[in-house]
């Protein structure tokens, strides 16, 4: 029976690791051979990117030192640079044999030989975005059928777009006959470059405490209707609704993960949600003379860095001689980046 999964029981191991913050996504290229109107990719050129850089050895060092269990290869479309994809898969599989590996594709450059090589190289799962080719392409569906021969786990992962309900509905039986394991439905995020649905009714979701995203209200209806339709027809694949709330759960787990990797242990207090708190003890008279709380921003706090308190000095906040400020930040979540300022308040 096809059901929406709200726990880890019947979702892909990759989705489990995502929700736990225990995986690294490697964008093996940003080049793509499709032209999806919903594509949120910030780049379109050939570059390698991950939270731990773009060198295999550097990435490996971070993974070994921390509690990760999986790697996904995304893009762009990884099959555009298939030789590179194979090289990177074989490198990490040799060094981290117990990791779970999966790859995303639109299927256009997929063929049986490539699927066989990936499977033999240790790729555990392949995910097809059939929305990229209009859902009903027999060429892509045939390739998914071939993938079923070689991969332990085969998924279809797409944005849940209400206007495309009938197209997807019409192909669900074929996907069930093929024997896919998972249908992953994302809440449809409305990017600034998406010209097709500019008049879509939307909500705003604050992802990772700092990123305001527009998402389609009709996407939620679409997902619910697809789940009902699949249940009524007894399809055997599991449906994972990758909602905005699940994305925030994932970001919370990633904050908790990355704050352990990049934080300044002497100064950073960490909340249960992975938010960094820094305390500043500023002489009261100096503060009154030179600062307005409402005007203190990230740059001002950098000027006050010498007044930042170490964790073992926090009893200073009880003194009447100081004004104590509490600044909160999103932790560093990528090498070469800084922690991101959220707000400052007076204690």
What does this structure look like?
There is one protein chain. By secondary structure, the protein is α/β, with parallel strands linked by helices. It has two domains: 13-259, Aldolase class I (TIM Barrel); 264-346, no CATH class. The protein is built from eleven helices and 13 strands. It has helices spanning 13-20, 56-65, 82-95, 112-121, 138-150, 165-169, 172-178, 217-232, 244-262, 284-290, 298-303, and strands spanning 23-27, 70-74, 100-105, 125-128, 153-160, 182-187, 202-207, 211-216, 238-242, 269-270, 276-283, 322-330, 340-346. The strands form three sheets. A seven-stranded parallel sheet has the order 1-2-3-4-5-6-9. Strands 10-11-12-13 form a four-stranded antiparallel sheet. Strands 7-8 form a two-stranded antiparallel ribbon. A hairpin with a 5-residue loop joins strand 10 and strand 11 (276-283). Helix 3 (82-95) runs parallel beside helix 4 and helix 4 packs parallel to helix 5 (138-150). It is globular and about 75 Å long. The model is unreliable at 1-6 (pLDDT under 50).
Task: Summarize this structure as a short list of keywords or feature phrases.
7-stranded parallel β-sheet; 2 domains; 22% strand; alpha/beta; TIM Barrel
Write the layout of secondary structure elements.
Blueprint (H helix, E strand, L loop, with lengths): L12 H8 L2 E5 L28 H10 L4 E5 L7 H14 L4 E6 L6 H10 L3 E4 L9 H13 L2 E8 L4 H5 L2 H7 L3 E6 L14 E6 L3 E6 H16 L5 E5 L1 H19 L6 E2 L5 E8 H7 L7 H6 L18 E9 L9 E7 L1
Parallel strand pairs: 1-2, 2-3, 3-4, 4-5, 5-6, 6-9
Antiparallel strand pairs: 7-8, 10-11, 11-12, 12-13
Helix pairs in contact: 3-4, 4-5
